[in-house]
Amino acid sequence: MPKARLVAAFALTLLPPSGALVAQRYANVNGIRMYYEIHGTGRGRPLVLIHGGGSTITTTFGRILPLLARTHRVIAVELQAHGHTSDREAPESFTQDAADVAELLRQLHVDSADILGFSNGGHTVLQLAISHPQRVRRLIVASAFYKRDGAVPGFFDQMDHAQFSDMPQAFKDAYARINPDPAALLNMFQKDVRRMQTFRDWPDADIRGIQAPALIVIGDHDIVRSEHAVAMAQLLPHARLAILPGNHGSYLGEITSPNARSNVPQLFVALVDEFRDGKLP
């Protein structure tokens, strides 16, 4: 195949369904080689996406990323030991994840951004808003809690007895396509589980001190209790709350969603877009 055709074929592999441009890059961040992608060509402050535990950019956001990138520039990251990103000789922590994201944004010369995090990514967003408030313009916290009793009963008991066999096969397959080393996959799983086993409540004062506008989103059959989501939205000084039909992640089209043809993820994207534009009443 002529060189020009090879280049064109490669370029086409980097185009998502929306046709938005994609850059796939790495940055040396706090001792790890951190992977990130840039989608879309929109102007204005970017939207940063932070995936859930055990996940990748694609498994959490693959369905909605092209929709988000139609009008905005999106920076999607993979955290320590996840996907393409390397590990460090230290446990995972939301404090470290937040520091890694903040450092990446500094290197990209992004003074502040809107940050969307799902599940464990939502916990990272909360910590980012607490520890690095200058980097957060607005935050979208999807299916995350700030206290242990925010999870449905039995959640942490299950975490105390979590087995590798419990990990969704879709997560295992997605990781293996990136890194075929089974030891690396098991390492990620064990570190994710340990982080949740040692989860500690954020003080109310820390949540109350977040001044950036916030959108709290959960599903009506989520692992986050509806009452807890209401309490968190009331505690945050400038927050809105949305409870959408679906379970943990199905409302944004996460890879384990039971109904791949649901239109609810489009509703979620519309909510995010209007929240970012400041149009929600």
Overall average pLDDT: 92
Count of DSSP-assigned helices = 11
Low-confidence stretches: 1-19
CATH superfamily: Alpha/Beta hydrolase fold, catalytic domain
Q: Within the CATH hierarchy, at the fold level, what is the topology?
A: Rossmann fold
For the largest beta-sheet, the strand count, sense and barrel status come to: 8 strands, mixed
Q: Structural class per helix/strand content?
A: alpha/beta
Strand content: 15-25%
Keywords:
single chain, 281 residues, alpha/beta, Rossmann fold, eight-stranded mixed β-sheet, 11 helices, disordered N terminus
Description:
The chain has 281 residues and is α/β, with parallel strands linked by helices. The protein has helices at 3-13, 57-61, 65-68, 94-107, 120-131, 155-160, 169-178, 182-197, 204-208, 226-235, 264-276; strands at 22-29, 32-39, 47-50, 74-77, 113-118, 136-142, 214-221, 239-247. α4 packs across α5 (120-131). It is globular.
